[in-house]
Amino acid sequence: MMLDQPFVVIAVIASATLLYARYDSKRRANPSGLPLPPGPRPLPFLGNILNLNLFEPWLSYTQWRKTYGDIMCSRLLGQNFIIINSQKVAKELVEQRSTIYSDRPVIATNKLFGMDFNTVLQPYGAVWRLHRKLFHYALRPETVPRYRELYLQKARTLLLNIFEEPTEYVAHLKGFTASIIMALTYGYDAKPRDDPMVKAVEELVALLTNVLTAERAAVLTAFPALERIPAWFPGARFKRQALYGRKLAARVNDVPFYFVKDNLAAGTAVPSMVSDLLSQIDEKDNSGEQEQAIKATAATVFIAGAETSASTLQSFILAMLLYPEVQARAQAEIDSVLGGSRLPDFNDRLSLPYVEAILREALRWRPVVPLGIPHATSSDDVYDGYFIPKGSLVIINIWAMGRDENKYSDVDEFIPERHFTSDGQLAPEPVSSNPIFGFGRRQCPGRFVSESFTWAAIASILATFRLAKAKDEQGKEIDVKAEYTTGLAIQPVKFPCAFISRSAERENLVRGSLQ
Ligand code: HEM
């Protein structure tokens, strides 16, 4: 993510006086006289922007934790960022004081990009409550078994696609998560490649993750005048992106939703989240409010769930190349349970603890959303002798939580064994309670669905292929590094991988299961 540099410089000069007035009034608004949580000394007006790694801010925050501890304050262009670095503090504040910590910051870029329908960024109020009710109804843990056959069938299609076109494995992983989400949300059977509905939403997600980071939003919130700069102004690239974002967002909301409505009217709808929710609508409600909420929650599922889950799978593949001994141990476990004569299904899950540990480790090793989605405080609070003002941005540093040296050693290494207790049992916490999914009332409602289909893909790939470094034309292995994109959500930069069939029998099983 690049801030448009000249744009920021103009803005800084033009708005300095205004900001100082805001800064000063905020300082005077602390009635308790208590200090803010500790943090690096901010510069006047700019705050800590010059100390912060704007591409990977989680690395700066995790580094600062060594000096300032589990709760810190950073200032960025006039806003307080309260950074939570440990699960303990996240539980005490975001879970136990959820009435204060469940709002989202007003992100100026949200409306500008047409994203204000989206549950993820919805303010803590009546619309958000209705969305969460719908999510709970459609994605609660009890609904997971209903979709297991779908997950397995899609996992086998994924294997087949990799057999056919191994170099395109990233597209196949994305196709896997996209097709599951389109099926469970709309009952829509997406084409494996270049599906128009999927393409539109993928583009919207790309805009969202690259442009709407909290740090970038802070620039716009601090300098609201920038929103009024016309799209053609030199350096105002984001305005042009915003215009495009608004058009895309309308398309992403409407097209698949009316696909379900038309099918319902024609009596051809396949059961799905949207068809279920439409059948629950209160007939007496003529306001259209419920229908609007269904449309918005459904569009959110793809935005929140498709790329995030595909990124976890890409990290898993990367780890298998970098840690071949882990892969070998998992395959030995799978072979001992399945005997090479069938493909894994959900009945095998409890018998495959090492595969389970690989899933947990992939989530920990490279958390897809390293700083979660920012929360905001809806009133003043005091914690551990520190003042936390109303309207602070609260950043949950998930990256640091997975790298807590009191809990884990060799934090940067991929070690599934760390998820076992000293007596060799898998640690009791289920994947769905992992900090990677956030905390409190805004915790990810897609976590049960996501961990379930991600498991199906990991177990199926390990049963069928040996993953190895690809070779160049001279037969030399191509080196692979753990390099990631940046933004709100991260994913590995594409790397080559060889998918070697583990046996003809397994390949026949895959082909046979899809006939
Ligand atoms: C590996 C996959 C996923 C990861 C790592 C992930 C992570 C997260 C995180 C960190 C949050 C913010 C929680 C907070 O504010 O404290 C979140 C929110 C959310 N996630 Fe997920 N998620 C994943 C998959 C999914 C899926 C598959 C869906 C939908 C089926 C989904 C739907 C949502 C929604 C709707 C929210 C917003 C909740 C709210 O603001 O009230 N996510 N997710």
Element layout with pairings:
Elements: H1 5-28, H2 57-68, E1 71-76, E2 79-84, H3 87-95, H4 98-101, H5 108-112, H6 126-139, H7 148-164, H8 169-186, H9 196-211, H10 214-222, H11 237-266, H12 273-280, H13 289-322, H14 324-338, H15 353-365, E3 375-376, E4 381-383, E5 386-388, E6 393-396, H16 398-401, H17 447-464, E7 465-468, E8 498-501, H18 504-513
Parallel strand pairs: 2-6
Antiparallel strand pairs: 1-2, 3-6, 4-5, 7-8
Helix pairs in contact: 6-13, 7-8, 7-17, 7-18, 8-13, 9-11, 9-13, 11-13, 12-13, 13-14, 13-15, 13-17
Bound molecules: protoporphyrin IX containing FE.
Protoporphyrin IX containing FE binds next to helix 6, helix 13 and helix 17.
Strand order of the largest sheet: 1-2-6-3
Please describe the biggest sheet, giving its number of strands, its sense, and whether it closes into a barrel: 4 strands, mixed
What overall form do the CA principal axes indicate? globular
Total number of beta strands: 8
The number of helical segments is 18
Small-molecule binders = protoporphyrin IX containing FE
**What structural class results from the helix and strand content?**
alpha+beta
Overall average residue pLDDT: 87
Indicate the low-confidence ranges by residue numbers. Answer: 1-25
**Radius of gyration computed on alpha carbons:** 24 Å
Taken in chain order, the helices and strands follow as HHEEHHHHHHHHHHHHHEEEEHHEEH
Span between N and C termini?
44 Å
Strand content: 5-15%
CATH architecture verdict: Orthogonal Bundle
* Total discrete domains: 1
- What is the helix fraction of residues, given as a range? 40-55%
**The CATH topology:** Cytochrome p450
Query: Any idea of the CATH class?
Result: Mainly Alpha
Q: Name the CATH superfamily assignment.
A: Cytochrome P450
Protein name: Cytochrome P450
